[in-house]
Amino acid sequence: MNKSKILLLLVLAAAIGAFYSLDVQQYLTRDFFQPLYSDNPRLTIGIFFLVYVAVTGLSLPGAAILTLIGGAIFGLGTGFLIISFASTIGATLAFLFSRTLLRDWVQKNFSDYMDTINKGVRKDGAFYLATLRLMRSLGSNSPQLAANYSRANLIPRSLLRGSSFPAVPFFVINLVMGLTPIRVWTFYWVSQLGMLPGTVVYVNAGAQLGQVEELSVSGILTPELIGSFVLLALFPWLARSGLELLRRRRIYKPFSKPAHFDNNLTVIGAGAAGLVSSYIAAAVKAKVSLIEKHKMGGDCLNTGCVPSKALLRSAKMAHYMGRAGEFGLENVKADVNFEAVMERVQAVIRKVEPHDSVERYTGLGVDCVTGTARVLSPWEVEVDGQGITSKNLIIASGGRPYVPPLPGLDRVTWYTSDTIWEIREKPGTLLVIGGGPIGCELTQAFTRLGVHVVQVDHGTRLLHREDPDVSEQVQAQFTDDGVDLRLKHEARSFHAEDDRQWLEAGVEGEKVEIEFDAVLFATGRQANTGNMGLETLGLELTERGTLQVNDFMQTRFPNIYACGDVAGPYQFTHVAAHQAWYAAVNALFGRFKKFRVDYSVIPWCTFTDPEVARVGLNETEAQDQGIEYEVTKYGIDDLDRAIADEEARGFVKVLTRPGKDKILGVTIVGYHAGELITEYISAMKHGLGLNKILGTIHIYPTLSESNKYAAGEWKRAHAPQKVLEWVKRYHSWMRH
């Protein structure tokens, strides 16, 4: 640090020290300034101006008090001019102090973090600063300003007890902006303009209070003072509305808004999210169009949930026949007709199709449009040359499987979870790349249908998002089923020769080759954001490639919403439907009331055998987040119904607050885990603890009793031992 910076730091430290050591705050009252103003108005204005600049420039407490005093002594007009310029000059001084002393050090030591801020400030620094200046007046209600009124000797504290006023801290803005590359002049004039609305409101409040002659309820409740307080209460709403209006004008400026709209809502994509949002719109009698370029129902119906569960069901039947001896059945044999199984999958899809069909949704009042949608503006979509204007848009274009661009891919036979349903001839060896839910479900299904499956994953265990004990259960079953499991294998490239195909993989620094007949990629999914014209609107993407949305499912354009896989963060059908409700309701009725999407209780299930169902935290996540917890575990192998059904395996694991029955998360591994976890989903949603589950009657013998027994395990571990010891003594005494 050079000499000039050291000198400046010493001067600032001395000034701040003097402020506190001399208790300068005791002079920041109306009683101190009022007599001075009566004797010498000009001198008082000068002193007041300098004091205000000093307090603001040094980021000291007292600016709010001085604002009220200025209004009370000088009145609205003069007080506003003095405080507007004094506050801006003081803020600029604080800005310069921060820039001189701290900017170089912060930029050097936090360059990665500051790079993003610097880019934003260089591009839209003035707008961001104006937003911050307005937002400083939008804080939550606080008794702090009430205390300021009393400390300024404007109103007795007794009359303000229980009142609340908006707090107005803004010194942090001055210091933080000094660390950025924004120009000094830009900072000054934006601050001057941005603080004008708040300055007027608060100076007016002080001016009205300064006219109070009798410090009593009757003296205070004058029309002028009531009006001032009403304005004070309305200002946050007015400022927020004004800020939103400015933001809208800024982002919509490049586009021409239609004078009339064809629709209230237009939805792009007829998967789970699109179907639900268009259904809701039609139900409330809005004019809605649903655009789909491929098949109604999206991937869930055609290539995801429905076909995979149909395949798993056939695989389970084949597996049960192989276990017939466990049930006392002899001479049971099943020959798997692979082609017939795959045709059955298609038959199931056809049976479900009417639920999501064009005919059904047309009957509900939805205008179903087939074709490729392209967004032309925030209000217009083009479908194969036909334009549709709409007050609001919902993008529900879903996602697609991600296929890593491995060398040699074009030389081998490969499938994804979207295309595997085309297969009719059973492959000799199916290579599955991926150890997540999709990869595990399809691996087990094809294995049980007689296909030799080699499952490859770069991780140390399957289902890496679940706890290790969950992975152990699934992996043990896969081994029993005959899966050739290759963990810690990093897929590198493919090569083929004649009719033979190989994967080259890396295993702890060594090269391994795996021969196969077909490869199935289950390496995750990516959002469908391309080829729709979204780049014209400049819609932001997250790091995962999904559309950036706020808590109301809005993109940067308030009338454009996104939901489902294209929005994330959870890519489940039930979450897509959940988000769709918020998107549709906010789009249609947001001017009256907007709803924040609720992710507090999100369940999911991997439909392997055993099933893996979860809601809330598991141990791994709790540890990563530093959340304290207790674990209660009940083994389903001890459950009567599970024993009778020859499904005595798995467990229920519940995480709770230490010493409390509040549920943080539940993982169930076992037969019908996806059904069993519903009780815990409801409990978490409605704030019910394990004591409530224990006190609920469960039918005997059912699998759901496992939930009650898990709650019983928790209760046993938290039994009041001292009380029980006295009860034991009581019973002993009663026997004599």
UniProtKB/TrEMBL annotation:
The keyword NADP applies. GO terms for cellular component: plasma membrane. The keyword ATP-binding does not apply. GO terms for molecular function: flavin adenine dinucleotide binding; NAD(P)H dehydrogenase (quinone) activity; oxidoreductase activity, acting on a sulfur group of donors, NAD(P) as acceptor. The chain crosses the membrane at residues 45-66, 73-97, 159-179, 186-205, 225-243, 264-284. Keywords: Disulfide bond, FAD, Flavoprotein, Membrane, NADP, Oxidoreductase, Redox-active center, Transmembrane, Transmembrane helix. SUPFAM superfamilies: FAD/NAD(P)-binding domain, FAD/NAD-linked reductases, dimerisation (C-terminal) domain. Residues 602-710 form the Pyridine nucleotide-disulphide oxidoreductase dimerisation domain. InterPro entries: FAD/NAD-bd_sf, FAD/NAD-binding_dom, FAD/NAD-linked_Rdtase_dimer_sf, Pyr_nucl-diS_OxRdtase_dimer, Pyr_OxRdtase_I_AS, VTT_dom. It comes from the Bacteria. Residues 64-207 form the VTT domain. Its cofactor is FAD. Residues 265-580 form the FAD/NAD(P)-binding domain. PROSITE patterns: PYRIDINE_REDOX_1. Pfam families: Pyr_redox_2 (PF07992), Pyr_redox_dim (PF02852), VTT_dom (PF09335). Gene3D superfamilies: 3.30.390.30, FAD/NAD(P)-binding domain (3.50.50.60). Belongs to the class-I pyridine nucleotide-disulfide oxidoreductase family. PANTHER family: MERCURIC REDUCTASE. This is Pyridine nucleotide-disulfide oxidoreductase. It comes from Endozoicomonas montiporae.
